[in-house]
Amino acid sequence: FNVSIKTFNQSCYPRINKESLMPIARSCRTEDDIEAWYPPGHGDFYQAFSNSGLLDEFVAQGKKHCFISNIDNLGATVDLNILNMCLNQNREFVMEVTDKTRADVKGGTLIQYEGKLRLLEAAQVPKE
């Protein structure tokens, strides 16, 4: 197999002080205070992928499908059944999800919102 693994950085958004509604970060440099910033979650994939230049690179190479996995899931592989479903049913997007366990304390969860299934990221919910 000729496998090429590409990576790119997700965006960072400033955390907001709940009293002042102002950004907690004192500068625009994330390395100055990384705790003042948060990754926006899976919904940022499309914008970050495009901003990285990888989307244009892949399209120029004639690629039509993309498998993504979080960096903390090193065991992730392409499930050929899911790939076949995407190809045979002309799906633009498919997300594989699993039931949460007690060990799943961060990340997102699926919710019903306004009659549609949505991914709710932990970063979208206040800690209290």
* Structural class based on helices, strands and sheet pairing: alpha+beta
Total number of helices: 3
Element-by-element helix/strand order? EEHHHEE
Low-confidence stretches: none
| Shape label | globular
Query: How far apart are the termini?
Result: 48 Å
Largest sheet features? 2 strands, antiparallel
Strand content: 5-15%
**Secondary structure: helix percent:** 10-25%
Q: Total strand count, please?
A: 4
- In round numbers, the mean pLDDT is 84
Rg from alpha-carbon coordinates? 18 Å
List the strand order in the largest sheet: 1-2
Give a written overview of the molecule.
The strands form 2 sheets. The chain has a two-stranded antiparallel sheet with strand order 1-2. A two-stranded antiparallel ribbon has the order 3-4. The model has no long low-confidence stretch (mean pLDDT 84). It is of the alpha+beta class and 128 residues long. The protein starts with 12 loop residues before the first strand and ends in a 7-residue tail after the last strand. It is built from 3 helices and 4 strands.
Task: Put the structure in a nutshell.
This protein has 128 residues and is an alpha+beta fold.
Structure keywords:
128 residues, alpha+beta, two-stranded antiparallel sheet, 3 helices, 12% strand
What is the strand and helix layout of this fold?
Blueprint: E1 13-14, E2 37-38, H1 45-51, H2 54-60, H3 80-88, E3 108-113, E4 116-121
Antiparallel strand pairs: 1-2, 3-4
